[in-house]
Design brief:
Largest interface: C-D, 112 and 112 residues
Number of helices of chain A: 14
Structural class of chain A: alpha/beta
Strand content of chain A: 15-25%
Strand order of the largest sheet of chain A: 5-13-12-11-8-6-7
Oligomer: homotetramer
Helix content of chain A: 25-40%
Largest sheet of chain A: 7 strands, mixed
Radius of gyration of chain A: 21 Å
Amino acid sequence: MKTFENLESEVRSYSRGWPTVFEKSKGYKLWDTDGKEYVDFFAGAGTLNYGHNNDAMQEKLIEYIKNDGVIHSLDMATIPRQDFLERFNEVILKPRNLDYKIMFPGPTGTNTVESALKIARKITGRETVISFTNAFHGMTIGSLSVTGNSFKRHGAGIPLHHAVSMPFDNYVEDHDSIAYLDRFLEDSGSGVALPAAIILETVQGEGGINAARMEWLKKVEELCRRWDILLIVDDVQAGNGRTGTFFSFEPAEIKPDVVCLSKSIGGIGLPMAITLIKSEYDQWGPGEHNGTFRGNNMAFIAATEALKNWENDEFAHAIQEKGAFLKSEINRLIDQYPELNGEAKGRGLMQGISIDKEGLAEDICAEAFHRGLIVETSGPDDEVVKFLPPLIIDQEGLEKGLKILEDSIKHVLKQ
Amino acid sequence: MKTFENLESEVRSYSRGWPTVFEKSKGYKLWDTDGKEYVDFFAGAGTLNYGHNNDAMQEKLIEYIKNDGVIHSLDMATIPRQDFLERFNEVILKPRNLDYKIMFPGPTGTNTVESALKIARKITGRETVISFTNAFHGMTIGSLSVTGNSFKRHGAGIPLHHAVSMPFDNYVEDHDSIAYLDRFLEDSGSGVALPAAIILETVQGEGGINAARMEWLKKVEELCRRWDILLIVDDVQAGNGRTGTFFSFEPAEIKPDVVCLSKSIGGIGLPMAITLIKSEYDQWGPGEHNGTFRGNNMAFIAATEALKNWENDEFAHAIQEKGAFLKSEINRLIDQYPELNGEAKGRGLMQGISIDKEGLAEDICAEAFHRGLIVETSGPDDEVVKFLPPLIIDQEGLEKGLKILEDSIKHVLKQ
Amino acid sequence: MKTFENLESEVRSYSRGWPTVFEKSKGYKLWDTDGKEYVDFFAGAGTLNYGHNNDAMQEKLIEYIKNDGVIHSLDMATIPRQDFLERFNEVILKPRNLDYKIMFPGPTGTNTVESALKIARKITGRETVISFTNAFHGMTIGSLSVTGNSFKRHGAGIPLHHAVSMPFDNYVEDHDSIAYLDRFLEDSGSGVALPAAIILETVQGEGGINAARMEWLKKVEELCRRWDILLIVDDVQAGNGRTGTFFSFEPAEIKPDVVCLSKSIGGIGLPMAITLIKSEYDQWGPGEHNGTFRGNNMAFIAATEALKNWENDEFAHAIQEKGAFLKSEINRLIDQYPELNGEAKGRGLMQGISIDKEGLAEDICAEAFHRGLIVETSGPDDEVVKFLPPLIIDQEGLEKGLKILEDSIKHVLKQ
Amino acid sequence: MKTFENLESEVRSYSRGWPTVFEKSKGYKLWDTDGKEYVDFFAGAGTLNYGHNNDAMQEKLIEYIKNDGVIHSLDMATIPRQDFLERFNEVILKPRNLDYKIMFPGPTGTNTVESALKIARKITGRETVISFTNAFHGMTIGSLSVTGNSFKRHGAGIPLHHAVSMPFDNYVEDHDSIAYLDRFLEDSGSGVALPAAIILETVQGEGGINAARMEWLKKVEELCRRWDILLIVDDVQAGNGRTGTFFSFEPAEIKPDVVCLSKSIGGIGLPMAITLIKSEYDQWGPGEHNGTFRGNNMAFIAATEALKNWENDEFAHAIQEKGAFLKSEINRLIDQYPELNGEAKGRGLMQGISIDKEGLAEDICAEAFHRGLIVETSGPDDEVVKFLPPLIIDQEGLEKGLKILEDSIKHVLKQ
């Protein structure tokens, strides 16, 4: 690890918590240079929903390279881009009756969010965007403005504007956050301007695996319709099947005006992002938002391959079943270890245990790493142990990971 | 092209100017699906300095995929990351006596710029950043704030703050822009606060291939030292050998406090960016700036391979020679076609012809495309024909491209 | 009225609602050029608490003018300034055990608020200020940022920043606004930065005569103490005895860090404002906030005379008694005219009836004007008939005014 | 002075430099409580152009008070307001062929500036305002944003936005500031958005008595017309005859779109301000900008009386002659005392000597105070001795003041 300590910036973080050099990976497993095996309950922070090094994707990539396929193309037309556009339309949009134009905003989550905010402001001619407590939308100034975390906000070094933070579902006990939002919108003396957009994650990944109720999501959409506000769903982490459906908002039966996708959209972990915009709102001028790496063709190839999982319902059902199993196990752990003061969070394969004792969640994750499980914390005080296994994990893998976790809990509680 | 028109957002731009589907590429050439060959004077907007599909890089990538190497790793430690850090230090930093820590800020140019602005603001506790007229630093709100182009700025949909635009070298005829900058800094009544940083491109790529004089760069550095301002060089487009040395600022003998690299740093066109920060200023907290795709291992592999070009001076000399040839050809064209009212711009293999007649530069580039040359315009009014061939282009390639260009000029002038 | 229509800007407002030329005034009465008499339930928007043209003040002013006293003096030392400082300290601060330094920030309400915001930001080094829904603090950009009204905010023509609007007491039915505020402050992921200050009116005059409960004020002060936030009370309209004590916050037994006074502080209606700052926070540099008209000596003279009312408790008791009478009358009207859907608002001699039917409150005030009563509406939808009689009004005056009001209600309801 | 030190805020400034208690004043003289006489070369910072305690104004005020005239009336119609509107139109606007609507924005300079910025932003729908180096427009956040002084800007405690500072006439030696401004406006890549307005003082009072050339003012107006930008002249200090004509911009033959007046507009030193807006731009909604003290009737009375000075050219001519005398005396002093490295500044009765030696100007003013002359410094480094005598001063007064000044110079230089 000397290389990293000596040459890399102090900003590095994961290599501190998991201080080993990783070498290989396949499916839900990783190995380090000592050959030690790790079960992966992290999935590259939600980027490896389809697991590590999927065989079919690997083959397609190798073939493309061997054929001197165009690797980098900005937004020039290429075959992988064409294939992706067509398959995404066929497999994802059409069956869900969604009339979105597909934008390639640059290959990162923060880029899709920045593009979403821009188009919402352009369409409405308004400036304010409403975001929610404990939201995480990215680290560039536009996205950071709608992010809740004070450490990350403070890192901007400048005040962050044009955003108003409203309470997420269940934020204040016994208070209806929709009632607040509604009151602020309808009262012309509230001090909050009519916003261009409301941006939300249906399950807040970094913010502590806070899952909004479907009913709450529906009500937010209703408010947006009543006040002519654009609804942006940031599905960067919760999308791509993470919660059991391709888009996380499908069970709420809402139709956001703009959807942000990144992370697992690239299939195998290659940088990629897309912004979905209702046709009527796709009023960009050419190049009004751009970026060099909008044409990562290798990512398009893996992305297109990944879409095969969505041609029928099997994959979705399997995720839902695994999610149910994980939920029951989490509840069991909470019951069995009351010292945790645990609370179950999340849905699908995006779940966690909130542990109401300072530092305990971090200790458990550190212990789990030593025992061969990659799992991280989330939440404003790192109080949630966050389970984000690859969606392709099998029962054996889940049990193996949960066993390590339980052992780690026991070990830490004993101390 | 129907697919792109029907399914992709209106924001697409290059596929409009070059309306064909590209399939293969090698060295300085591209082929579309009809098998038509194109000479590349664009290099993926400066991302393909080492040419398309370099054989050695292809082999390394295929080998890595075949071995199930970790593709995506955020800032976890991996072998490709380690190799890159060590080689970059050995080949680039040490020989130039540069004491920088290496930060991976997310794999795009705008990400490295956003991180540079953040650290400068953190270090100094100040908010304002001085940028220059016709600067281009990126499209997310932080980077866009220090970008000059009004169409792109307007796209933000919000006012852009914390930045002051000062005249670049030679901005106003017969006016010394340093005198102006100096006066604003020394006068406590100027209305311009002492800035955290001055950010600049030594050659403004998007802004019209405006090359600052070395003397001007030295003076800017002197001002920074006198007033304790950080100097950030955005070498995203001009770096990686584009102007004839690895960093574009080397001939000026300055040592920026922060350097932004992206585009060609990834070797073969894969998304990657790094931010170089003087050790003493590397005062980040862990994770204070982050991003999902900081660990694009395939890019690290190609990047490390690319560094081989810098182990001795041959590559640099070759670029300089090609640059001199290009300069002489540009001057010849300007002389031969006085109707262009042409002006030679830029240095190294980052040159252009500014054409003082509305729409003419665009017409020439459109005609060149039909004749098999990929070349684009730049500048606030798209008035510059911009030559950005891959650095590995040979004499034959340069001549071929210039021949097409000259034919295009003739053709367009005839009309 | 032709002169005003032809020569004065469209921005004029009161002369539209009360379209007559006023000539004389005394006590609680005004007369127009036709000799028509009006009972004043408006008191110059709270500026004439001591009534029109108080005899003693008139005498003092005339004497001062006759003696060639210095009229205008910025913050030079003059006798009227000295007298005011000493009497204000003796009569107001000392008996209430308040250790404030007195600042003259320019002679308007918005000026004292701007100075309060500045000193709070300087002391804490923070930028955000929390204000409340339906707050009104002034029309210059700093004060407007903490004002709720959307029409007035929109008039800025620029986005208003560095302020967060939180729910005032009883803002959302059955929701505890303190719980909400508390949650946003304690959660580091809330998206709301620790503020420099919380600014509030104990009774919101322009916002609809919303009176906070004493218990709520106490809790806000506790939050401020816990989080080391400065508490600013804007007592411009509610202070100077309006609610029955000199400062409106006295019954809550809180000690704000900064208090803003203007309007009636000048005694007879002459422009004046002061900012009271806890000694420990009086860390201004000389001239760090200034303004030309900080030395309006005529206002100081009337102000000093006005302080005589506070040398014992009689004046306060009288206000409280009149307030109680007014409250009972308001309740009677609400009972007697159920068509109003009336709700009693406010306390002391700052009360109102909120009327839940669009336009009705305005119609009543218009009718009252024709019948000889000056009374205006307030609230985000002009839904409150607002009673702000001079504090020196006698029982006869109150009854006379209320009689006209009741007649106006009857008349309007009949239509 | 104990009272002021013990009870008044540390923000006080003039009472530090002139530590005595002033009691009486008449014409161009003041007396303190010890009976010491002072010649006034300060005129209440330009507020007492008509001298202290003008007899006619005193009489009018006393008469009004005795008649129980309405003192305070917001923007209700009153006789003094009507008289002022009519006389201002007759005496000032009509003869100069100016078609302005008159707005009462609140009785301070910063209030008129804030209203000017608002209307310019409303009319154009743009946000940025261009101001100039060393401008001073006021201390509330809107006005402060267009003010140059860094100490005062820093006092805001927040970043100041929506303003771009451009070089005033003669700001950088041998550089044409119009060329800069022009280049930034015409270049769509300059990073400076098309502004709503350009705001300027024709002579910068606080900024160092910098007088723009008439030719420069004309060119600024031309730029405004070409780009459809509103031109705002802040004539708060330089207006009301200070430079020899009622408006300071008359000799330039320009017609600003908005003019800000305050200070001496109130005649005798009472708080008052007006904003003049070209009829076509008077598009305010009623009450869109307001303020409690818009109806200071005593000020209107003195203001109307003051207008008598402008019914013919005598007053203007007299000012011009006194200005010429002052200029010759300043030049004599500069010649006679080369140790000052003096430079003559300003025009009319708004002149100064810039002294190029740190602290010397302040020492001279301090000595002058002891010898009976009230004169202050201005400029970013307090380097200018600023002469601002009442316009009604006679030859004897001017000579008396200049004699004290010269003695003070001699005394200070001797040390």
